[in-house]
Specification:
By secondary structure, this protein is α+β, with helices and mostly antiparallel strands. 21% of the residues lie in helices and 15% in strands. The chain has two domains: 31-113 and 213-239, no CATH class; 116-208, no CATH class. The strands form four sheets. A two-stranded antiparallel ribbon has the order 1-2. It is globular and about 55 Å long. Residues 1-191 form the CN hydrolase domain.
Length: 239
């Protein structure tokens, strides 16, 4: 999959792309692991072995990595709310990994995911348009073709048939949606369009009423185990 990503990046760069976004779980694949049986545990072992290893226990996270144009690592975001059977495999990301990066082409951030319609329903594009209008930004949601099972691949088993689309802060469709298999879609993004959209609606600016409704984001790690010492140091090898 790394070779495929490198090939797609080179293809996008040949068209002049400065920002390239891959679908969720592009490298590791979407979760289709079975039940908690011997077969399911072996499937999980293989899935775990193929993940990027970090010194953070055995929990897997659906993670996006950010890199600059020189290939330098900028940071990561872990999916905050795995859905459905994903919760058996993926852990919950915390507020520590909701970054926004200042780059030469503008501010970049990702949240996996905001739109609960990333499937084959007709409401997908409408939801993405609403998100673009409400936030006043470019949400380029890349989508994948995803079947619910590997055992019997047929048109009826397809859960998500693609639908990658790029929409402007004013709600105009710039590219896509694509439902014709694997493809690379692109568009020219006018960053001045963001300021024009904020004139209509600035959800965290002059159109907000924080004294009435406010949002609090805890950007600290959520540790599952915390030792509360009542006196002195703990006995034994634990530190």
């Amino acid at each position: 999959m790394a070779d495929k990503a490198e090939r797609l990046l080179a293809e996008a760069a040949s068209h002049g792309s400065q920002l390239v976004v891959f679908p969720e779980a592009f490298a590791g694949g979407c979760v289709i692991i079975g039940n908690r049986t011997a077969k399911g545990r072996e499937e999980f072992r293989k899935y775990h072995a193929s993940a990027i290893d970090v010194p953070d226990g055995y929990t897997l996270y659906c993670t996006i990595l950010f890199f600059d144009p020189q290939g330098r690592y900028l940071g990561k975001h872990r999916k905050v709310m795995p859905t459905a059977l994903e919760r058996v495999i993926w852990g919950f990301g915390d507020g520590l990994t909701i970054p926004v990066f200042d780059t030469p082409i503008g501010k970049i951030g990702v949240e996996i995911y905001c739109a609960p319609t990333a499937d084959a329903r007709d409401t997908w594009q409408a939801s993405t348009t609403h998100i673009a209008l409400e936030g006043g930004y470019y949400p380029p949601p890349p989508e994948y073709v995803f079947a619910g099972t590997d055992d019997d691949l047929n048109p009826n088993s397809v859960v998500c048939a693609g639908g990658s689309v790029i929409i402007s802060p004013s709600g105009n469709v710039l590219a896509g949606p694509n439902y014709d298999g694997e493809a690379l879609i692109s568009a020219d993004l006018d960053l001045e369009e963001i300021a024009r959209a904020k004139f209509d609606f600035d959800v965290v600016g002059h159109y907000s009423r924080p004294e009435v409704v406010s949002l609090t984001v805890r950007d600290n790690p959520s540790n599952p185990v915390t030792f509360a010492l009542t006196s002195g140091k703990p006995e034994g090898p634990y530190k």
